[in-house]
Specification:
single chain, about 60 residues, alpha+beta, two-stranded antiparallel ribbon, two-stranded antiparallel sheet, 1 helix, rod-shaped, Ribosomal_zn-bd, ribonucleoprotein, 50S ribosomal protein L32, Ribosomal_bL32_bact, ribosomal protein
Length: about 60
């Protein structure tokens, strides 16, 4: 079995682990009601997407 010839440096190790971090979701405001929503998705509070009503308000 292969054995490493040298110790992996902290910098190289952390570069490899760079993609395992937690990501903060990017939020945008709804143009209709002003609530925070995920981009390119229907607004959960008013049901609008791209100035059209997709889900009827309850």
């Amino acid at each position: 079995m292969g054995v490493p010839k040298r110790k992996t440096s902290r910098s190289r190790r952390d570069k490899r682990r760079n993609h395992q971090r937690l990501h903060v979701p990017s939020l945008s405001t709804c143009p209709q009601c002003g609530a925070a929503q995920l981009p390119h998705r229907i607004c959960p509070s008013c049901g609008f997407y791209k100035e059209r009503e997709i889900i009827a308000a309850q």
